[in-house]
Amino acid sequence: MTDWLSDAGDAAVAQDNQRRLAQAEARVQQAQRQIPALRVQLSQIDRKISQKTQNDDRLRENWTRLGCSRTSGKRLPWRLHPPKTPSAGDFIV
Asked: Are the C-beta atoms of residues 75 and 68 closer than 8 Å to each other?
């Protein structure tokens, strides 16, 4: 009787292992099907990062041309950039 129970237990373990293996193979296949779409997303992200880097470089160039500080973006002292000429709307009567 012990041999029969042992054989039934071995068969159950083998069946469970087969089920787990089939599930793992299904997950692998699903992941492999997702790879092309993930590559497309990755290239889109790379493109956005490249564009942002180019925009940041352009902003830095513009800030330098306008006399702004590179780190804070604030204008340099007014001696380098005199204040604008006041207009009639700037005075309170």
From this structure: yes
